[in-house]
Amino acid sequence: MLPTPKKFFLTAAAAEGHSELTAFDNALLAGKIGNINLLKVSSILPPSAEYDPDLVIPPGSLVPTAYGFICSDVPGELIAAAVGVGFSADTFGVIMEFAGRCSREEAAAKIESMLREAFDSRGMELKETKIAAVEHRVEKVGCALAAVPMFY
């Protein structure tokens, strides 16, 4: 069983590569999470997790991460990814992720809407949000990625 994460940050980055996998890897590197092992998780931020934008995670670590990404090999296509964290006053938070063929602003607006809906569905009051978003105009093969890594 994994311990409950105590810290987190948000990242959003985009990159090109020679293939979709290398574009994804390059976006991970650009987002400062390219040398860790992502464990994809769903959308709950532990109650006591602290925001640490300068968090350094040791290479090779297994890291619970909520993330969304999109890759494209259509030159000129605009792609975007965004993540957001919604905070309650006294309990857990909710993470939402989105990726699509749209602008950075459209992706961020989608995150805001999904966070409001998630809190409404839970009967919780949304106190604050943090959102990270990126857009990328594809040259050859591109990737847009947004993530919330959580660590101990």
From TrEMBL:
Q: Which reaction does it catalyse?
A: L-arginine + H(+) = agmatine + CO2
Top enzyme category: lyase
Q: Keywords, A to Z?
A: Decarboxylase, Lyase, Pyruvate
Say yes or no: keyword Lyase present: yes
User: Example GO molecular function term?
Assistant: arginine decarboxylase activity
Gene3D superfamilies, sorted: 3.30.60.30, Pyruvoyl-Dependent Histidine Decarboxylase, subunit B
The keyword Lyase is assigned to this record: yes
Q: Which GO terms describe its biological process?
A: L-arginine catabolic process
Give the EC number(s) listed in the UniProt record.
Answer: 4.1.1.19
Cofactor needs: pyruvate
HAMAP family linked to this entry: PvlArgDC
Please state which protein family the record places this protein in.
Belongs to the pyruvoyl-dependent arginine decarboxylase family.
Name of the protein this chain belongs to = Pyruvoyl-dependent arginine decarboxylase AaxB
- Species assigned in the record: Desulfoscipio geothermicus DSM 3669
